[in-house]
Design goal:
The protein is mainly alpha-helical. The chain contains 23 helices and two strands. It has a two-stranded parallel sheet with strand order 1-2.
Length: about 500
């Protein structure tokens, strides 16, 4: 239920639109991009947009999940310790964190589509170079560069959000998880075939192909009309809207497209403006915790399968009987995944779409805040359930549910963040949130791959505690965005609100 300040703000915004309609320039009707998007509705253009922009999730999933399936091989090839293996994933997300802010600023200034194309070129180039890495140091550096490129893929979600009508965002955006699932399953399937045969280097080369192919189809996606309007490029915005209407077979609204007041865009201080300060801080906490839990689940799953850490064992699995091979005594734990391990990874990964229908229902019925609180609370519970001694099938079931829940958390948070910020700062808001969440992702490897091998219970309790904090932060967010139109002009609205309170 909307709070009094929210109702007052919405009333001011609607009143502003209504006044503008009553007093159009020179007696002519006008319409905004928001009104055009709602009038045109959902159609073939949005399906094409969904397929192309959604496919960015396939590429991102393959690049991020790659480390989980090659870590046993680089561990043995370069004789790495636990912390060195964890450092690879940490540096990937360090590159992601740094580039998220930079690319978010650039996207708000130069356009979402240009930055998305640049990020794909960058990630594909450095991913190919990684397959030729001559040493561990080079491998770490090149994967960090890949992480930087992958951070720009978030612009695909922003473009989808800014073209979708309000009532479809809560349904279509969670379905994008299908593409992440497809990418995760694809890289695991390729790894199960290629790692034991032609090796991890060829796996990386083949994994970079989808990103290269996707670059070729970006020409069919225009720049966001909302972005063009925020820069004052009314002609480009109108042309884009007319193109969308033509593809959908729909009519444009009557009148002239109204140009908003030109404002400075992409300013960090807007994120900490009193209007958004509390929301921003709580969103940052949630993003950090969700990434910590999500990548913790992925890496912990691989660690469980590689080391057979079950029943909360606190003993490192490096001690074996005298009859074991010399490789088994290695402090680097040279244990490769077998067919059963890959099968478990595929089953648990499939969990990422298991709760999608229920998640979509909750998002649109209960709202973003309460849905996120529920799924985060359940995530905390299942982290604790991993401590129960059970069969292999039971452990797989727990991992399946964890992947389903952490995926639902990401879905809801992406939608909420994209909806709560206005066009003038949406990419920056997503970029900074994505950047801070990588701090959680950077810490996760040292918990899932280092602490977990020493104290399984301690690691699982830490993951659970962070999820509880995120659940509390989610339910106390100041604004519910369910059914809310995407705000366009932050400073203009703030000025109107200030005037009405004087």
């Amino acid at each position: 239920m909307a709070t009094a300040p929210e109702e007052a703000e919405n009333a001011v915004v609607l009143g502003e639109i209504h006044m503008n309609r009553k007093e159009p320039p020179e007696g002519k009707k006008t319409f905004t991009v928001e009104e055009a998007v709602e009038t045109i509705g959902f159609g073939r253009f949005h399906i094409m947009l969904f397929l192309i922009m959604g496919s960015t999730g396939v590429v991102e999933a393959m690049e991020i999940m790659l480390i989980a399936v090659v870590s046993p091989f680089i561990r043995c090839e370069w004789q790495l310790q636990d912390w060195q293996v964890a450092l690879v994933t940490t540096m990937v997300f360090f590159g992601y964190m740094v580039f998220s802010i930079v690319l978010g600023l650039l996207a708000d200034r130069y356009g979402r589509r240009k930055i998305l194309l640049l990020s794909f070129l960058w990630a594909a180039y450095f991913s190919l170079l990684t397959s030729f890495a001559p040493s561990y140091i080079w491998f770490v550096f090149l994967r960090a560069m890949v992480g930087g490129g992958v951070s720009g893929h978030a612009q695909g979600l922003i473009i989808k959000t800014e073209f979708l009508p309000t009532k479809y965002r809560g349904y279509m955006l969670p379905l994008s998880q299908v593409f992440w699932l497809a990418g995760s399953l694809l890289i695991i399937g390729l790894a199960s075939v290629m790692n034991p045969t032609i090796g991890w280097r060829w796996l990386i080369r083949i994994a970079s192909i989808p990103g290269i192919l996707l670059i070729l189809v970006f020409q069919f996606i225009p720049e966001s009309a909302r972005y063009n309007m925020s820069t004052g490029n009314v002609a480009a915005a109108l042309a884009t809207l007319q193109r969308v209407a033509k593809v959908n077979g729909a009519a444009m609204p009557d009148g002239l497209l109204r140009e908003p007041v030109k404002e400075r865009r992409g300013r960090f201080k807007d994120l900490i403006h009193p209007k958004y300060l509390r929301t921003t801080l709580q969103i940052w906490i949630i993003w950090l915790g969700i990434a910590f839990a999500y990548y913790g689940v992925i890496l912990a799953s691989a660690e469980l399968l590689e080391r057979d850490l079950v029943c909360g064992s606190a003993a490192p699995p490096a001690q074996h009987s005298s009859g074991d091979s010399e490789e088994s005594h290695s402090p680097c734990h040279c244990h490769f995944f077998g067919p059963a391990a890959y099968q478990t990874m595929i089953i648990s990964t499939a969990g990422e779409i298991a709760l999608n229908p229920l998640n979509i229902l909750c998002i649109n019925v209960l709202g973003r805040r309460l849905s996120l609180c529920i799924t985060m609370g359940c995530t905390a519970l299942f982290f604790l359930l991993l401590n129960i001694c059970t069969s292999s099938a039971g452990t797989t079931g727990f991992l399946f549910m964890l992947r389903a829940l952490v995926s639902a958390n990401f879905n809801t948070t992406y939608i909420y963040t994209a909806e709560v910020y206005p066009t003038t700062m949406r990419a920056l808001g997503m970029g900074t949130s994505g950047s801070l969440c990588r701090i959680g992702a950077m810490v996760a490897p040292f918990i899932a791959q280092v602490l977990m091998s020493t104290s399984f219970t301690g690691a699982s309790c830490l993951f659970s505690s962070v999820c509880v904090v995120c659940a509390i932060s989610a339910v106390t967010l100041p604004t519910e965005t369910k059914g809310r139109a995407l705000p366009l002009q932050l400073l203009r609205i703030v000025r109107v609100i200030v005037k009405t309170t004087k």
